[in-house]
Records
---
Amino acid sequence: MITIFNRAQLCVTQSLEQYGKLTAALDAAGIRYYAKALSRSSPAASAMGTRERAGTFAQNMAYDYFYRIYVRKADLESAGECLRQALR
């Protein structure tokens, strides 16, 4: 089980294609991961997002999300190698 206490951030990407390649490589290697998608334009409880003020006109929606991938700290080195292999 991956918890906030035993996880390390492997990478952050804005590309859905890269996110798919990375998670497929981790699955193939049998490395468990936790992924989180964050939108730049959606509002947060503590601050307004950009969509409310300016809308989404002229924004490239392909880069609207940040994808964060976390793995167990014990698996960080092997997950890093999977990441390098997947991005070749």
---
Amino acid sequence: MSISLYYFFQIKTYKTINFILEIDEKHKTFAKINSDIYYSLNKDSFAQFQFQDRSIRLELIKITNTKQNEFIIEFTKSLLLKPKTQIPAVLFLKDNGNFFDLFIK
């Protein structure tokens, strides 16, 4: 029982944002974000989406500032996705701690 309780409190919680993941004709996977989201990103941020019956995780590789208050974030490529498509996804921004921290903050 104590071992399962230990693992229960090791569950990590993340701040998340829903967004549209875009794939261009060269299989470049990217999304457009604003500065509020940009300042919440860290090196461990990643995107996750459902494709058929699988959950696919893409790592953040590059951030480009296109104009004031607009950024393009690029993710690792996935050859499972067709070019020129858009997919709803979830952006995991930062680790908020473990499950226990939700109750004490």
